[in-house]
Amino acid sequence: MTFARITGTGSDLPEKVLTNADIEAMVDTSDQWIRERTGIRQRHIVAPEEATSDLAERAARCALEAADRRVGDIDLIIVATTTPDRVFPSTACLLQQRLGIHGCAAFDIQAVCTGFVYALGVADKFIRCGSARCALVIGAETMSRIIDWTDRSTCVLFGDGAGAVVLEASDEPGVHSSHLHADGHYAHLLHVPRGSSTAPDDVGAVRTFVEMKGNEVFRVATNTLGRIVDETLAANNLNKSDIDWLVPHQANIRIIEATARKLKMSLDNVIITVDRHGNTSAASVPLALDQGVRDGRIKRGDMLLLEAFGGGFTWGSALVTY
Ligand code: UT7
């Protein structure tokens, strides 16, 4: 039987750091409010000339190096992003060109903050059924480009970044299971209200931004992530104590703490980056994973629970032996 195994991780953060103090100078907020309600102290923001594919490429090269693989080994590229460089071609195709790869399948996945977990689940299935042997799976975002920097209810929350993994065919797991869900009933609670097919004629002059009913999203996110922990453990016949590391989506430290409580897990076993990265949407889980691997906390053979929740609503998890 063929499984998919993570053989390398990588990430990239833009150079510019925007602190809570910087945001205090932009909107009516305070460092104390942001830290107490979200856990965020700072976030990284792209330079004017940087695009999502720049971050994706750097994270991808970093993951390839960690996996000791060359670009020529890659036979599938999936980029999870809500902030593609262009309407089309996909950011995955732009990245493929930059990496100098030609011919392999390359496509984007749009599941907002759950995007990387969706991408990992899809790549896992490609590998298990023999359609690919060595995939680049990336979450990359420039959320700062779709944020209204005068709206204090959203602009304090988000940041830019990218994370990547190389996922390879292996005789041993790897990805044990992935659990992907969505409910479009909640679309209005967290969205960018217009896109290519719903824009008025004069859209060229109008920009649209992330809008969120934060406390309603918070309530559904907390309950839903609790349920997906149960679903993931049950599907694999595991107990809470079998999980070595929780690698959660980094939207809010209070949501992360609630999921850790559900797992009866100390925060010492949770990879937390929200304080330094803010919410980087599809990039947050692979960024946290790479952080945990590179600082030596996550070791080969550890059992990881990856989970995320985001616009759609979408939510998902993956159980992975690293
Ligand atoms: O990644 C995708 C999923 N996204 C999430 O999971 C985000 C989920 N939501 C959250 O993380 C939280 O709901 C927020 C951090 C967005 C907001 O925290 P909250 O504790 O739910 O605050 P709230 O929206 O209920 O607002 C409480 C108060 C309001 O003032 P009043 O009406 O009580 O006077 C807001 O106007 O806080 C005010 N407020 C702020 N004050 C200072 C909202 N934003 C700010 C701000 N600075 N930046």
Describe this structure in words.
The protein is of the alpha/beta class. It has two domains: 3-172, Thiolase/Chalcone synthase (Peroxisomal Thiolase, Chain A, domain 1, 3-Layer(aba) Sandwich); 177-321, Thiolase/Chalcone synthase (Peroxisomal Thiolase, Chain A, domain 1, 3-Layer(aba) Sandwich), CATH 3.40.47. The chain contains ten helices and 13 strands. Strand 12 (303-310) and strand 13 form a beta hairpin. The longest helix is centred in the C-terminal third of the chain and has 22 residues, at 214-235. The chain is globular, with a radius of gyration of 18 Å.
Question: Which features does this protein show?
Answer:
322 residues, alpha/beta, Peroxisomal Thiolase, Chain A, domain 1, 2 domains, five-stranded mixed sheet, four-stranded mixed sheet, 13 strands, 25% strand, binds oxa(dethia)-CoA
- Determine the strand fraction and express it as a percent band: 15-25%
Q: What small molecules are bound in this structure?
A: oxa(dethia)-CoA
Order of helices and strands: EEHHEHEHEHEHEEEEHEHHHEE
Q: Mind telling me which CATH architecture of the largest domain this is? A: 3-Layer(aba) Sandwich
Q: Do you know the CATH topology of the largest domain?
A: Peroxisomal Thiolase, Chain A, domain 1
**Derived structural class:** alpha/beta
Mean pLDDT score, rounded?
A: 96
N/C terminus separation: 18 Å
